[in-house]
């Protein structure tokens, strides 16, 4: 029995050191077995003290991270293609963010609940100034799932104040919006929910549109299918949209999204864009829904908002966000002052260093290199998708043509053994989403490392 089998987890990685071919490029370095033998005690404690649900990423003990690279204590260095699950837009440990945090710690405000503070108000003002026209309030939270939960509650109450029957919500099959109760139910059918005995029967999933069919026609088919289940347009309060479907970095067809906006306007339905992965320059636009040239009614943002500490927000018009009464839903650490300090510094970095434009330019290079990889391995790479520096390789079994989750998982580990830090999506994809500060040469070198890994496997 293999170690993976004995763990009881089909997606668990081995913790036994494996010999690695030495790697030395200007951007990545591997000099030991992996995981490095000296890190074994930490990994053993991780298995001992964490539930197994947390033990599914490559077993590398991160010691420090700078800009676009990750280091362990044994001297190994990786190009970071994970951005810590698409969070570190301005890179790891940017000096401006570190300085802002150090200065704020000296000021002494380390907790505040829902009381006002200058730094929290300053961040809200900055977010509203950056938000699309018509969005004039920022509802601060701690993590993305909380922002989704808040938007769900707002949308339901907003709809029912218009019509008591207007409480149905739509989302897309394959979307992922979070692990909390409402967010997980909004997540698509791939987010298994056997534990949920009484699911929300007014949350409905419609097919994610394909890019080889007419978008408006696909939307009409989904609306007709809902009507057959006695769910009509006037009963729908909102549609939740993962702006690029995260597991596969899949954009929506533009004609579909524009048809969706027209339909929503015709029936007084909110379009709520989940920009938690895609916001703040990640896709080469400040917000990814700009690629579709449509209006958002609410934006849920997080991750790249601070590129470091936990922070999230719902941005929208007062007429929608003021639906809830004071203290209806809140949380102790929402908009924590330290996180606000990090976010303000991070937003300055994004604009001062031109990271939005850089993500667009470097992302084009990344996709060009990934397409070359697809040409080398056409039987195994079904598709390359993405925008800016949020991209994915879609893997398939050449014998069956079906998505190959096992190959994706093994490719992650083989790439890590070659100095490219990836994270496991638990799907048939390998995501390539480095910090926006990465130089193009490092992107090319990292994708070359993925190619070396894939050649070894196939």
UniProtKB/TrEMBL annotation:
Keywords: Aminotransferase, Pyridoxal phosphate, Transferase
Organism: Symmachiella dynata
Record family assignment: Belongs to the class-III pyridoxal-phosphate-dependent aminotransferase family.
Name assigned to this protein: 4-aminobutyrate aminotransferase PuuE
Single GO molecular function: identical protein binding
Keyword check for Calcium: no
Cofactor names: pyridoxal 5'-phosphate
Domain of life according to the entry: Bacteria
E.C. number(s) listed in UniProt: 2.6.1.19
Entry-linked InterPro entries: Aminotrans_3, Aminotrans_3_PPA_site, Class-III_PLP-dep_AT, PyrdxlP-dep_Trfase, PyrdxlP-dep_Trfase_major, PyrdxlP-dep_Trfase_small
A Pfam match: Aminotran_3
């Amino acid at each position: 029995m293999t170690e993976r089998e004995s763990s009881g987890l089909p997606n668990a990685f081995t913790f036994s050191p494996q010999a690695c071919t030495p790697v030395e490029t200007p951007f990545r370095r591997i000099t030991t077995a992996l995981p490095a033998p000296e890190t074994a005690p930490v990994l053993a404690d991780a298995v001992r003290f964490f539930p197994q649900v947390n033990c599914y990423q490559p077993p590398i003990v991160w010691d420090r991270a700078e800009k676009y690279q990750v280091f362990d204590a044994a001297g190994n260095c990786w190009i970071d293609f994970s951005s810590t699950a698409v969070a570190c837009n301005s890179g790891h440990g940017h000096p401006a963010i570190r300085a802002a945090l150090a200065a704020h710690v000296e000021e002494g405000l380390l907790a505040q609940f829902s009381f006002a503070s200058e730094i929290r108000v300053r961040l809200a003002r900055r977010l509203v100034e950056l938000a699309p026209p018509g969005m004039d309030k920022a509802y601060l939270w701690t993590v993305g799932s909380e922002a989704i939960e808040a938007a769900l509650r707002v949308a339901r109450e907003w709809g029912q104040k218009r019509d008591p029957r207007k409480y149905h919500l739509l989302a897309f099959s394959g979307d992922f919006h979070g692990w909390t109760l409402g967010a997980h139910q909004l997540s698509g059918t791939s987010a298994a929910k056997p534990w949920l005995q009484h699911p929300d029967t007014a949350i409905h999933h419609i097919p994610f549109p394909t890019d080889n069919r007419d978008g408006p026609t696909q939307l009409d088919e989904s609306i007709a299918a809902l009507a057959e289940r006695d769910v009509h347009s006037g009963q729908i309060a909102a549609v939740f949209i993962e702006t690029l479907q995260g597991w596969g970095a899949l954009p929506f067809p533009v004609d579909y999204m524009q048809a969706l906006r027209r339909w929503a306007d015709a029936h007084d339905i909110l379009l709520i864009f989940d920009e938690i992965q895609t916001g703040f320059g990640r896709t080469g636009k400040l917000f990814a829904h700009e690629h579709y040239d449509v209006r958002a009614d609410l934006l849920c943002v997080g991750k790249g908002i601070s590129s470091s500490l936990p922070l999230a927000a719902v941005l929208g018009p007062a007429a929608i966000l003021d639906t809830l009464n004071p203290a209806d839903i809140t949380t102790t650490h929402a908009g924590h002052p330290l996180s606000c300090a990090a976010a303000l510094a991070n937003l300055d970095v994004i604009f001062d260093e031109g990271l939005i434009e850089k993500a667009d330019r470097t992302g084009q290079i990344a996709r060009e290199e990934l397409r070359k990889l697809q040409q080398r391995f056409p039987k195994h790479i079904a598709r390359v998708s993405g925008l800016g520096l949020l991209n994915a390789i879609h893997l398939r079994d050449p014998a069956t043509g079906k998505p190959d989750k096992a190959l994706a998982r093994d490719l992650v580990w083989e790439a890590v053994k070659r100095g490219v830090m990836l994270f496991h999506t638990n799907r048939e994809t390998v995501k390539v989403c480095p910090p926006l500060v990465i130089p193009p040469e490092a992107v090319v070198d990292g994708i070359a490392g993925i190619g070396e890994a894939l050649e070894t496997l196939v």
